[in-house]
Recover the amino acids of this structure.
């Protein structure tokens, strides 16, 4: 799957001021114009005059977040610099997260991810996005990710420990990250000179999900908001948690020099055309697989011949707590015996049976041995726990590329699927009219209200679920669908069942969409104001 995409988009020439500086043509962007078009801009300096007026100087755009159906999209405007002589924006997002709320599994369709990102930008900042030249868009990072399912948590920990000692050619491991269950290759924190071609990240997916879920729940509680509920619900789904359990993720982060090295254009339009040609010969998802394999091949080569030591700590700990935890008379959970026995087990593993026996009292030693035998250990196993259990690492790291998603997975909807990608980009550039899917919801409601002779002041009320009284016999309400679609409906005052209306509209919407011409009707607003 494509786990991450970072895109740089330059501005149209008519919005730039070009000057000749130090022998070079340098363009600048009017940040005031950006602010008037909806962008959040801040001044680096302000001048307060004695008459009470003030002036803002050196406007800039801080890192911002664009809303999407689920998670936000990182977004920032840059003025020209010594690195690039033209202003541009950077957009960073996980296509899977913005379309389904998580990236445990996802699509290997690059075009689908790009369209989803562009759609979110157009929805959030429709006027500002008119300043952008989408033909100039280029990738500066793409992440391709595949995973393996391991037998249990102990094997996963052992594989990670073994991989942390791998080095081959340019590969150098590092645990310099947020999670202990994560290993990086060719990536050093706060060093921009590492990973300019590729960097690798191997980690336990369930640990990442638990961290994200806890963080979102804490934010929701602290901020007293329901803004995170949709993502929390997606991450809490039992099927998703089960799929992520004991799953080790191998993530390849592809940077600019990789594309230059292989002679592949980073221009978004050209790359998507290239991918379509590539996959027309080799099958859907083949380019994502090729990117991943090219970045991972040295690591996979180093793994052959290496062995891992399997330690079963988490399984033993779970068995001990199940067998020996008790509840006292005050209702408090007592875990002391299970903790003590796990310490005894750990000594047997690291010191050996005979050495531990010599350092303990006879009755204490044999009582502990009997307790361990009661949870399933044999006497022979306990006498040989210090003998390491080894397995060839290559036997565990086997990728099944047909089992990267659960059977119930549904591919996200392709935005404006009736348009070819070049037509979709023309629409983003304003060459052809906007499709209904890209119209900002507020703009749709505003236009519909104006057509009915009503003021746009009713927008917030409709979005809040309140009906607008049109006359003695008719009211207007907004119907919102689970997939983010929406429609206006005229009905009897206090007499509409919105759920019933939405069910009827779902049945007619598919046939209506098929009847709409793919380009000629792009500029028409939905003719859904009225009785279904």
């Amino acid at each position: 799957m494509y786990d991450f995409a970072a895109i740089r988009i330059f501005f149209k020439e008519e919005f730039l001021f070009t000057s000749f500086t130090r022998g070079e043509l340098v363009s600048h962007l009017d940040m005031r114009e950006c602010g008037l078009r909806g962008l959040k801009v801040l001044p680096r300096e302000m001048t307060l005059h004695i008459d009470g007026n003030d002036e803002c100087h050196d406007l800039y755009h801080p890192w911002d977040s664009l809303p999407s159906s689920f998670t936000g999209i990182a977004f920032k405007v840059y003025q020209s610099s010594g690195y690039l002589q033209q202003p541009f924006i950077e957009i960073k997002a996980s296509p899977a997260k913005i379309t389904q709320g998580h990236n445990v599994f996802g699509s290997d369709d690059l075009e689908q991810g790009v369209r989803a990102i562009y759609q979110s930008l157009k929805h959030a900042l429709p006027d500002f996005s008119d300043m952008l030249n989408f033909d100039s868009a280029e990738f500066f990072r793409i992440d391709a990710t595949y995973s393996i399912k391991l037998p249990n948590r102990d094997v996963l920990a052992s594989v990670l420990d073994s991989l942390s000692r791998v080095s081959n050619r340019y590969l150098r491991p590092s645990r310099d990250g947020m999670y202990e269950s994560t290993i990086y290759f060719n990536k050093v924190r706060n060093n921009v000179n590492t990973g300019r071609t590729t960097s690798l990240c191997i980690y336990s997916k369930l640990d990442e999900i638990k961290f994200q879920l806890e963080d979102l729940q804490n934010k929701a509680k602290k901020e007293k908001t329901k803004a995170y509920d949709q993502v929390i619900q997606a991450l809490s789904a039992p099927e998703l948690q089960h799929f992520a359990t004991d799953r080790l993720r191998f993530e390849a982060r592809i940077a600019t020099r990789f594309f230059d090295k292989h002679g592949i254009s980073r221009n978004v339009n050209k790359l998507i055309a290239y991918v379509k040609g590539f996959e027309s010969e080799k099958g859907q998802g083949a380019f994502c697989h090729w990117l991943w394999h090219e970045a991972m091949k040295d690591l996979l080569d180093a793994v052959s011949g290496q062995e891992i030591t399997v330690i079963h700590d988490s399984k033993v700990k779970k068995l001990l707590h199940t067998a020996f935890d008790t509840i006292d008379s005050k209702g408090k959970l007592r875990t002391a015996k299970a903790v003590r026995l796990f310490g005894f087990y750990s000594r047997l593993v690291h010191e050996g049976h005979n050495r531990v026996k010599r350092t303990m009292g006879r009755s204490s030693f044999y009582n502990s041995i009997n307790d361990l035998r009661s949870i399933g250990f044999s006497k022979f196993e306990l006498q040989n726990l210090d003998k390491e259990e080894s397995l060839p690492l290559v036997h565990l790291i086997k990728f099944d590329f047909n089992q990267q998603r659960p059977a119930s997975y549904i591919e996200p909807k392709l935005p404006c699927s009736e348009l070819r990608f070049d037509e979709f980009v023309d629409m983003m550039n304003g060459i052809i009219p906007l499709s209904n899917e890209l119209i900002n919801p507020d703009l749709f409601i505003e236009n519909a209200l104006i057509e009915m002779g009503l003021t746009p002041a009713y927008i917030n009320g409709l979005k809040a679920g309140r009906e607008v009284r049109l006359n003695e016999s008719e009211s207007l309400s907004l119907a919102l669908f689970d997939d983010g679609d929406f429609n206006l409906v005229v009905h009897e005052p206090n007499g509409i069942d919105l759920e019933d209306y939405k069910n009827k509209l779902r049945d007619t919407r598919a046939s209506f969409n098929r009847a709409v011409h793919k380009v000629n009707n792009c500029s028409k607003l939905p003719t859904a104001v009225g009785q279904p």
The longest strand covers residues 132-149.
